[in-house]
Design brief:
Length: about 270
């Protein structure tokens, strides 16, 4: 049974501030345009509940790790980060780059394609590392895809986020979100949900995840699995606070179609 969702307190309405007053980082004009369109659309579709933006570094390389609950959540998370002062570079399915207009927008906004299931899958991390060297903020979902957990809890992860964090050594900021699945559905797109009442959209960022014990440690597969589990544990705990519930004992594993005891992640 779903418990009472606990909305985090939001000071003011930061999404209503002029973008130029809260974000001074350079970005392509297309990204500015998309951000303003998303801001207007989300004002019609949802009631925002934001907290923790002070944990988003205002400059310098950083990684954001977040739970993935819907096809809509990159837009919702993106707006939160942009109005938090940064232009995120998301890692996303390469299929998006094949869609007319949408693919052009993704390229113009310097997003990073992931070629899943191919020999080019690791190329995305090369591009992500390049973005970090340029001092940009990279957003990545440790689960690798939209969660299949029936109650939208974070499911088992992949190693990409951990590998990127271990090789770059930059701060890793966890973000938990809830509500995006009420706009377009969870894994399956449901456009009918757009019509109707506005939904509550919750986002909360936490302090950087402590990875100090992994400094100087070779990023072996085992280490990457440990760090993946750490990311998911932190995010799951934050989601539990948003929901006002205890998380399940196990994590949903998409390969077997059910929750399993918490174990190490899979390959990127």
């Amino acid at each position: 049974m779903m418990g009472r969702m606990i909305p985090p307190a939001t000071t003011g309405k930061p999404w209503r501030r002029r973008l130029r007053s809260v974000n001074h980082e350079p970005a392509p004009w297309v990204y500015h345009t998309i951000a303003h369109l998303a801001n207007a659309a989300l004002s019609l579709l949802g009631r925002r509940h934001w907290v923790g933006q002070e944990h988003i570094p205002r400059e310098g390389a950083a990684i954001v790790v977040a739970n993935h609950i819907s096809n809509a959540d990159p837009v919702i998370l993106g707006e939160y980060l942009i109005w938090g002062g940064r232009w995120p570079r998301f890692l996303g399915k390469a299929d998006i780059w094949k869609i007319p207009v949408l693919g052009w927008v993704a390229r113009q906004c310097e997003q990073i394609p992931v070629h899943r299931g191919t020999t080019r899958a690791r190329d995305s991390l090369v591009h992500a590392e390049r973005a970090l060297r340029k001092g940009q903020l990279v957003a990545i979902y440790p689960e690798g895809t939209i969660t299949a957990d029936p109650d939208t809890w974070p499911m088992t992860g992949r190693r990409g986020a951990a590998r990127l964090a271990l090789t770059s050594g930059v701060p890793v900021i966890p973000v938990a979100q809830m509500g995006a699945q009420l706009i377009l559905g969870q894994k399956q797109l449901d456009w009918r949900r757009i019509i109707g009442r506005r939904r509550d959209l919750h986002l909360v960022a936490g302090p950087p995840i402590d990875l100090s014990r992994y400094e100087g440690v070779e990023p072996t597969t085992q280490v990457q699995d440990e760090v993946t589990e750490l990311f998911l544990d932190v995010i799951t705990g934050m989601v539990a606070e948003l929901k006002g519930e205890q998380p399940p004992d196990g994590r949903f594993d998409i390969r077997v179609g059910r929750r399993v005891p918490r174990a190490h992640g899979a390959d990127q």
